[in-house]
Amino acid sequence: MYKLLIRPILFWFDPEKVHYFTFSLIRILSKIPGFSFLFRALYDVNDKRLETEVFGLKFKNPVGLAAGFDKDATLYNELSNFGFGFIEIGTLTPVGQDGNPKKRLFRLKPDAAIINRMGFNNGGVRDAAERLKRNKGVLIGGNIGKNKLTPNEEATSDYEICFDALYDCVDYFAINVSSPNTPNLRALQDKEPLTRLLQNLQNRNLAKPKAKPILLKIAPDLTDEQLMDIIDIVKETKIAGVIATNTTISREGLQSENKTETGGLSGKPLTKRSTEVIRFLSEKSNKAFPIIGVGGIHCAGDAIEKLDAGASLIQLYTGFIYEGPSLVKAINKKILERL
Questions:
Q1: How big, in percent rounded to 5, are the helix, strand and coil portions of the chain?
Q2: Coil, strand, or helix at residue 30?
Q3: I need a surface site. Which of 114, 246, 254, 321 has the fewest CB within 10 A?
Q4: Which residues are annotated as a binding site for substrate?
Q5: Contact in structure between 215 and 174 (CB atoms under 8 Å)
Q6: Exactly one of 30, 36, 80, 179 is catalytic; which is it?
Q7: What is the mean pLDDT of each successive set of 10 residues along the chain, which is 339 residues long?
Q8: Among this protein's residues, is 179 annotated catalytic?
Q9: Which residues are known binding-site members?
């Protein structure tokens, strides 16, 4: 029903406005008695065999919602009713910011893709932390970044502020240095500044009563040499793992009119490259750390390819928008078929 009826209507309108409209609709419906139960009955695959333990956490299933969808942690409880095993909120910054000027979100329907240049628009980490206190048992990842006006030389302080604010509210952290929409942010992926950033966060983490898993979210545009650096950095800093991958700046093979828009590309054009990065990291590291696979998952087969390539968990974003919530169920059922 989603692809035949709901999606064509939603896709008539501006994607950012539709995003907020959909959030409001889900929130309203979830308050009506019985609707949350209906969503779970339709989409949640409740089977103990799907439980997955990764970096010390138990996930009810390996399919998560990627960061960027619920940036401000306003709808994570309701979204969990669509069958997700975990929800990653953010990217959050120390101080709320409007992000880049609109229009900044574009559908590329012939390519089953999206280009965004949102620019870490969010209300600030402290407000999100307050909302996370209302968590009803959802496993939450906290994706954190730096404010646009913070120079890279002071970026560590921004990440530390976010880390401290979310420490009691999230189950793991995702360090975002790979968004193409904050000026110079990707320079933090260079070996020296990235090692320093992650080591400072890890030292802060280990000083807490109970350390939380820290993962690094990387770009799909890294070279093999840079990916080898990532493996070395994970080993040196002893963080928990990697999220592969963020959006790409590549426009290779696109057909849509919007292909010239600046920003990060997600969706089907990213399927192959994100899987290649997962396989490279897994094989070259000898499976030394867990990987969350994300990028271009539009069917159960795409998810299985990423798991077979070395991912321990997967996340959806653009595929969830194009295919609807039935995709979560289809992936979990496919995983069960393979057991």
A1: 45, 15, 35
A2: helix
A3: 254
A4: 71, 116-120, 176, 181, 246-247
A5: yes
A6: 179
A7: 94 97 97 97 98 98 98 98 98 98 98 98 98 98 98 97 98 97 94 97 97 98 97 98 98 96 98 98 98 98 98 98 98 97
A8: yes
A9: 67-71, 91, 116-120, 143, 176, 181, 217, 245-247, 267, 296, 317-318
In eight-state DSSP terms, residue 87 is: E
Beta-carbon contacts of residue 152 (< 8 Å; ≥ 6 apart) = 146, 184, 185, 187, 188, 193
Which two tokens mark 72? 């401000």
Q: How far apart are CA 232 and CA 226, in angstroms?
A: 10
Q: Is 20 helix (H, G, I), strand (E, B) or coil?
A: helix
Q: Which H or E element spans position 18?
A: helix 15-31
Binding site for FMN, by residue number, is: 67-71, 91, 143, 176, 217, 245, 267, 296, 317-318
Can you list the domains of the chain with their CATH numbers? 2-44+58-337 (3.20.20.70)
Which CA distances in Å does 318 have to 153, 285, 292? 33, 28, 16
* Residue 228 phi, psi (nearest 5): -65, -35
